[in-house]
Structure formats: structure tokens, C-alpha cells
Design a protein that fits this description.
Pfam families: Guanylate_kin (PF00625)
Largest sheet: 5 strands, parallel
Mean pLDDT: 85
Helix content: 40-55%
Strand content: 15-25%
Keywords: ATP-binding, Kinase, Nucleotide-binding, Transferase
CATH superfamily: P-loop containing nucleotide triphosphate hydrolases
Family: Belongs to the guanylate kinase family.
Order of helices and strands: EHEEEHEEHEHEHHHEH
GO molecular function: ATP binding; GMP kinase activity
Number of helices: 8
Protein name: Guanylate kinase
Number of strands: 9
Number of domains: 1
């Protein structure tokens, strides 16, 4: 089980907002955190590898893990599954570092219900138009998936309501969002609230 010296931070936000980019840019801040790698049943995108940014498995494998109770949280996100395993969370949390997770709002709410001191940081778009432009420009979705994501983006304000921090990912300046997230994490770590 996790030690009492850790904090959990979740980075979340609507599809296409730039979560992966912000997370990548945060690496230069040497935060006392270790990232938990989420498992997904979606196919790899160009530039991704096994374990970066996800563990990629088949739908059948994911279903088996659900049946065996291996997930601390999981959700169907569009046409694929995403989840955080108990094993991965425990391995990371047993160290002396805080825990960093990236997930959708459903997973964030599940983890928050289990660990109420978790801090959820929502990466927000400058506007819905820019959010949708980013999603379209990414160009890796089938038309059906893209339509679902664009539709969900219309209600992102409701889906991501009532979390702790909201950081705008300005157009062409994700490093600013990363710097703000890093400052929040440093502040929260210095407060010293234990989660476990």
C-alpha cells in the first residue's frame, strides 16, 4: 500500500487541450513526483511507444483486467478503455515521491472519491473554437471519433466542474501552463498534507 508521505496530483482536461504537451514540458521542473502510467485499449498514435504515454493493450486484455479487479479506476472514453491499475498506483506511491496521474474527468472523480486530499488540475482551452481546432489538427481520429469528441467538448465546462485548479493552455504557449502547474504542485507539496 502507499506510504503516508505521498500526494496525488491529477492532470485532466478535455480532449485536444494539450495535456500530453503540458506534461512533457513539466519534466524540466524536476518536481518530486513520479508519473503513473495509465493503461488503455486504444491503438498507439504516431510517436507513442509502449509505456509512453500509456500501456497499450487489447480490449480483451482490458476486459480481463476489469474482471480480475485490477483497476483502481477505469472508464470507457469514447471508443476505448482507460484505467489506472492498483499495482501501478501502489508501485509509484510506495516511493518517496508524490504521484502524478493524467486521466479524464471520470477517472479524476473516482480517484478523488478514494483519496479526498488529491488535487485535480484541469488544463483548459482559450476557447471552444481553439480546442476544436487543436482536435481537428491532430488528425488521428476517425470521423466518428472526432464527431464524438467535438460533441463532448461542447459540455466540457460541466464535465470538469468543481475541481481544484484551472490552468489555461494558451495557444502556442504550453510552457506557460506547465510553469503554472509546476508552481501549484510545489506549493501543494510544501503544505505537507498526507494522503495515505
Amino acid at each position: 500500500m502507499p506510504t503516508r508521505n505521498n500526494k496525488i496530483f491529477i492532470i485532466t482536461g478535455p480532449s485536444g487541450v494539450g495535456k500530453d504537451t503540458v506534461m512533457r514540458d513539466m519534466q524540466s521542473y524536476n518536481l518530486p513526483l513520479q508519473r503513473v502510467t495509465t493503461t488503455t485499449s486504444r491503438p498507439m498514435r504516431a510517436g507513442e511507444t509502449q509505456g509512453q504515454p500509456y500501456y497499450f493493450i487489447s480490449e480483451k486484455e482490458f476486459s480481463g483486467m476489469i474482471e480480475r479487479g485490477e483497476f483502481a479506476e477505469y472508464a470507457r472514453v469514447f471508443d476505448s478503455w482507460k484505467g489506472t491499475t492498483h499495482k501501478e498506483l501502489a508501485e509509484v506511491a510506495n516511493g518517496n515521491l508524490g504521484v502524478l496521474l493524467q486521466m479524464d474527468y471520470q477517472g479524476a472523480r473516482t480517484i478523488l472519491s478514494q483519496y479526498p486530499e488529491t488535487k485535480v488540475i484541469v488544463i483548459t482551452p482559450p476557447s471552444i473554437e481553439i480546442l476544436n481546432e487543436r482536435l481537428i489538427r491532430r488528425g488521428d481520429k476517425h470521423k466518428e471519433d472526432l464527431a464524438k469528441r467535438l460533441e463532448q467538448n461542447k459540455r466540457w465546462h460541466q464535465d470538469y466542474a468543481n475541481f481544484h485548479y484551472y490552468i489555461e493552455n494558451e495557444q502556442d504557449h504550453p510552457e506557460k501552463a506547465a510553469a503554472t502547474v509546476a508552481a501549484i504542485i510545489k506549493k501543494e507539496v510544501s503544505v505537507g498534507v498526507d494522503l495515505f
